[in-house]
């Protein structure tokens, strides 16, 4: 068996009704995994960008690549994990209980370490925004967990190739 | 002048050269049917069930190579098309299925006869469109036909809301279609083709393995050139039968589960497999770990996702079979493989398709042999089951598009409506429908339009009073526990044919087989149904049991 690896696909698609369903349906129908999925319009309103994180052995990844390309509304597929070096970011919102002032101070200090921003503060809770790669977000979440996370929302990854390798 | 969306649709279909539309009318498609009323350029063929409409469109496409068109209303009309759409999708058949949809303002409200057709058909079509605005119709029709017939062909669905059918706009049909996200790769990579030529030159035990893609690409001529030029033995799959003449000494006939021992042994011993428009389906390969273990593989396919899907490939070539073979043919010469050719001939001689004539029984294989004897030039459309395998084994196909069957999805009920489509598409050909007693009754209602149109279909039922292929598996693997396969309660098909207004005959004795077939030949003013009552417990051999390797083929019970 080939080892399973994580791959990030950048998929440019027509910004059209039903495209996301076609992509998601392809993965569920063929038994491929989706670890995270992010979709949004690009600077060109007619094109959407899907960033899709998946894992599988080399044969599966190749199949995913070809099957994505087979969809009529897919303009371009790039496997960022093999196409060159890339940058990736994810954004997470974390709501933490701050029942005593001492705890709040600590949380703000920790947030600073992760370059987090406070985007909401109430007497009993605080909402932080942190961006970063997977490792950084995991470290942040692990620490904030010790303070009691009330709620967490994350975007899933977005990524692109460095420099002129587009 | 402004036209209704329905009229624009019909005018667009005319631009695409559509001759026939197979359909069943209903509420949400009424404006389209109305636009087709009295239409002379496009003939509307009213079928009796939407499944029949989609199979008829499919049969028309398989026989002619043109795009077949099916039409149905929303909701149940559309869901009834689904089996036919999935059948076409699995065999890559160019088809456009048009469905009416409820009014735009009702979409999503669970309105009467509403169904999310786009959602239901998403995994079984090449592409689909929901039209809510009549302005989109002309462009969508042009795109749909372009997508259906180019690249790897397949069915495309156009779902049109009823208000878009009724609303009016100007008819402006696009002269060309350019879809930025859809550019099929037609030409093979020259470097890869050169590599393939080198492998072919070096091989000592090469075989050609051709599939339905050769027929779809109209590349039968190029395949023959490659075979004749190299003199490499060839096996053609169930989907490709006729792409290379089975009567030629180089033909090893069909491979796989019920294929020839020769083809299966050849795979097992080969040192090079040259796959062309074939997809290493599980019914061909058997246990993958034992499949062609000593062979390098060249795989030519228009669909990159088919290459390396089941079997690792040494030289992948993405491209249209016709283009790639044309290039490859320039670089090959006669292979120096006499010992291998002799081995193939020995297998062919030693293990032909054969059966035992049981006393007092009409043997199904004999019926097929006789059909071949009397109708060797016909287009043969089989259904799915034992009769399909016997037809594939005992009829010797020599031309592409001479043999039509549902190979991928294995849809019982496919053949009678498909035969209607094929006969309309090829009015000068004799069309023979080899059917089973189980499959025939699944779409028997389509005998009605066949009778109405006086189509001279030859419908031959290989009637063993069982769901025979399942019964065979029950006999071999489930201790003869014949669960839900006993069809002795079927009606008398000869009498039933007469009730439909067709000619109906019943044959129960071997000596009556040939005279009945001769008689059927003379009946040209409508369909003739012959119910051949055959041996009930005859099995299809050779057989590679599920999970076994091709080398472990069971040649017969004895």
- Major sheet of chain B: size, sense and barrel closure? 6 strands, parallel
The strand count of chain B comes to 19
CATH fold type of the largest domain in chain A: Alpha-Beta Plaits
Number of helices of chain B: 22
Mean pLDDT of chain A: 94
Beta strand count of chain A? 9
Strand order of the largest sheet of chain B: 3-2-4-5-7-6
Keywords:
heterodimer; A: 166 residues; alpha+beta; Alpha-Beta Plaits; 2 domains; 4-stranded antiparallel sheet; 5 helices; 9 strands; B: 558 residues; alpha/beta; Rossmann fold; 6-stranded parallel sheet; 22 helices; 37% helix
Describe this structure as you would to a colleague:
- The complex is a heterodimer of chains A (166) and B (558).
- With 166 residues, chain A is α+β, with helices and mostly antiparallel strands.
- Chain A folds into 2 domains: 5-84, ACT domain (Alpha-Beta Plaits, 2-Layer Sandwich), CATH 3.30.70.260; 87-161, Alpha-Beta Plaits (2-Layer Sandwich).
- Chain A is 33% helix and 41% strand.
- Chain A has helices at 19-30, 58-70, 80-83, 101-113, 134-145; strands spanning 5-14, 36-41, 47-56, 74-79, 86-97, 117-122, 125-132, 149-154, 158-161.
- In chain A, the strands form 2 sheets. In chain A, strands 5, 6, 7, 8 and 9 form a 5-stranded antiparallel β-sheet that branches. In chain A, strands 2-3-1-4 form a 4-stranded antiparallel β-sheet.
- The longest helix of chain A has 13 residues, at 58-70.
- The relative contact order of chain A is 0.19.
- Chain B folds into 3 domains: 2-170, 3-Layer(aba) Sandwich (Rossmann fold), CATH 3.40.50; 190-350, TPP-binding domain (Rossmann fold, 3-Layer(aba) Sandwich); 364-533, Rossmann fold (3-Layer(aba) Sandwich).
- Helix content of chain B is 37%, strand content 16%.
- Chain B contains 22 helices and 19 strands.
- In chain B, helix 16 (386-394) links the parallel strand 14 (379-382) and strand 15.
- In chain B, helix 1 (5-15) runs parallel beside helix 6.
- Chain B is globular, with a radius of gyration of 24 Å.
- The mean pLDDT of chain B is 97.
- Chain A binds chain B through residues 13-14, 17-18, 21-22, 25-26, 29, 59, 62-63, 66-67, 69-70, 72-75, and chain B through 118-119, 122-123, 126-128, 130, 147, 179-182, 303-305, 308-309.
């Amino acid at each position: 068996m080939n080892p399973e690896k994580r791959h990030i696909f950048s998929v440019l698609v027509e910004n059209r009704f039903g495209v996301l369903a076609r992509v998601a349906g392809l993965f569920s129908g063929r038994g491929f995994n989706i670890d995270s999925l992010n979709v949004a319009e690009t600077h060109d309103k007619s094109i959407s960008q899907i960033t899709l994180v998946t894992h599988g052995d080399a044969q599966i990844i190749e199949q995913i690549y070809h099957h994505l390309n087979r969809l009529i509304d897919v303009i371009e597929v790039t496997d960022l994990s093999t196409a060159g070096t890339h940058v990736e970011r994810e954004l997470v919102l974390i709501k933490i209980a701050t029942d005593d002032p001492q705890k709040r101070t600590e949380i703000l200090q920790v947030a600073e370490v992760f370059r987090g921003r406070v985007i909401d503060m109430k007497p009993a809770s605080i909402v932080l925004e942190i961006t970063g790669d997977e490792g950084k977000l995991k470290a942040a979440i692990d620490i904030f967990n010790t303070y009691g996370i009330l709620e967490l929302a994350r975007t899933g990854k977005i990524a692109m190739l460095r420099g002129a390798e587009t | 002048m402004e036209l209704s969306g329905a009229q624009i649709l019909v005018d667009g279909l005319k631009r695409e050269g559509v001759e026939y539309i197979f359909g069943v009318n209903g509420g949400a498609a009424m404006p389209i049917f109305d636009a087709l009323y009295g239409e002379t350029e496009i003939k509307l063929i009213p079928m009796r069930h939407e499944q029949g409409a989609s199979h008829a469109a499919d049969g028309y496409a398989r026989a002619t190579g043109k795009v077949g068109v099916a039409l149905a209303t929303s909701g149940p009309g559309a869901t009834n098309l689904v089996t036919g759409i999935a059948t076409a999708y699995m065999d890559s058949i160019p088809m456009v299925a048009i469905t009416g949809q409820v009014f735009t303002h009702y979409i999503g409200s669970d309105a009467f006869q509403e169904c999310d057709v786009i959602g239901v058909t998403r995994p079984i079509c090449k592409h689909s469109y929901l039209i809510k605005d009549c302005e989109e119709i002309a462009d969508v029709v042009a795109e749909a036909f372009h997508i259906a017939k180019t690249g790897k062909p397949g069915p495309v669905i156009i779902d049109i809301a009823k208000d878009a059918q009724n609303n009016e706009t100007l008819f402006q049909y696009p002269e060309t279609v350019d879809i930025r996200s859809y550019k099929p790769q037609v030409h093979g990579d020259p470097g890869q083709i050169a590599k393939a030529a080198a492998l072919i030159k070096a091989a000592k035990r090469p075989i050609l393995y051709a599939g339905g893609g050769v027929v779809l690409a109209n590349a039968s001529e190029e395949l023959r050139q490659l075979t004749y030029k190299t003199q490499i033995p060839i096996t053609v799959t169930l989907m490709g039968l006729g792409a290379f003449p089975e009567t030629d000494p180089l033909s090893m006939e069909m491979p796989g589960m019920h294929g020839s021992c020769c083809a299966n042994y050849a795979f097992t011993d080969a040192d090079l497999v040259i796959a062309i428009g074939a997809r290493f389906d599980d019914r061909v390969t058997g246990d993958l770990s034992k499949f062609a273990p000593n062979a390098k593989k060249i795989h030519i396919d228009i669909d990159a996702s088919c290459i390396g899907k089941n079997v690792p490939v040494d030289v992948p070539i993405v491209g249209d079979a016709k283009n790639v073979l044309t290039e490859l043919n320039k670089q090959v010469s006669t292979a120096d493989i006499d010992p291998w050719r002799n081995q193939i001939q020995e297998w062919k001689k030693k293990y032909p398709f054969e059966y035992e004539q049981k006393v007092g029984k009409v043997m199904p294989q004999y019926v097929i042999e006789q059909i071949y004897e009397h109708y060797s030039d016909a287009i043969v459309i089989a259904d799915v089951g034992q009769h399909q395998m016997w037809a594939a084994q005992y009829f010797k196909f020599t031309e592409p598009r001479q043999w039509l069957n549902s190979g991928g999805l294995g849809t019982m009920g496919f053949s009678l409506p498909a035969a209607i489509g094929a006969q309309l598409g090829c009015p000068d050909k004799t069309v023979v429908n080899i059917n089973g007693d189980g499959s025939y009754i699944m779409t028997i209602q389509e005998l009605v339009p066949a009778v109405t149109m006086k189509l001279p279909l030859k419908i031959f039922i290989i009637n063993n009073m069982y769901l025979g292929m399942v019964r065979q598996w029950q006999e071999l693997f489930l201790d003869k526990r014949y669960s839900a396969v006993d069809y002795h309660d079927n009606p008398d098909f000869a009498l039933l044919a007469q009730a439909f207004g067709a000619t109906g005959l019943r044959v129960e004795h071997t000596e009556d087989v040939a005279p009945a077939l001769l008689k059927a030949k003379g009946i040209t003013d409508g369909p003739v149904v012959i119910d051949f009552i055959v041996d009930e417990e005859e099995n299809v051999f050779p057989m590679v049991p599920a999970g076994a390797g091709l080398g472990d083929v069971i040649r017969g019970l004895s």
